[in-house]
Amino acid sequence: MKLKKLLLTSTLLPIATIPTVAISCNKELKELNENQIPLPKDGNLAKSQAIKSLFSKINFNDFSSNLFPKDLEHYHQEDYYKKFAEKWYFDENFKDISDAKKIDKIEFLDPNSKFIGELKKQNLYEFFNENFEIRLRTAYRQLRIVLFLFLIPKSEAKRVNELDNIEYFNFKFYATKYNELLLEQFNTEYNTPETTYKKVFKILGYVVPTVAIGGIILYITIMVILKKKREKNLKRK
């Protein structure tokens, strides 16, 4: 059960931030948080805390532009997800663990990002690489693409990398962070649902002249009026 919660985190957390969230979602998040562990209280605690703080500030601009293009207005949301983000989506039915391991090795953060730059500026970059990894999980839900990040111990990454079953996804983590790509950020030309009438008249516009469309509208109007008259007559009887 906990493993399923971990796999579906990227769908749960954004929903759980809405005040009207169902109690069940909060319960699932509480169970999920059992996988979260505290930072080690050793001589490097201050460094670890600084890294955790920088991790909490990661945003979409920190992602590689080659893997995640920033010109969202040139893409339809669903197309963008399928082309660039879906490979990081794993559910409880996922079978090819070796494929997941390859995907998790992809450097999805820009090496010139603000996050990496701050690590180097604060002399934390080497310590980060020795002790931490960031795992990415994605989902396409609620008219949004969710990019969900886990800050995990390097030792935990090595542990699960030895596994060849779905428990590979059941890792412990120090912190989580998510970013959302909302529908309005994309080209919404065909993402916006059309009414039946709009679809019908768009088709008619290609195959019949304007005069014919006017005739059809007039015909529909007359039929509606006649129907109402019949209903009134039936009520009188």
From TrEMBL:
Location of this chain's protein in the cell: Cell membrane
Keyword Iron: no
Membrane topology according to the record: Lipid-anchor
Residues in the signal sequence: none
UniProt entry keywords in alphabetical sequence: Lipoprotein, Membrane, Palmitate, Repeat, Signal, Transmembrane, Transmembrane helix
Major site of localization recorded for this protein: membrane
Transmembrane segments: 203-226
Gene Ontology, cellular component aspect: plasma membrane
Protein name in UniProt: Variable surface lipoprotein
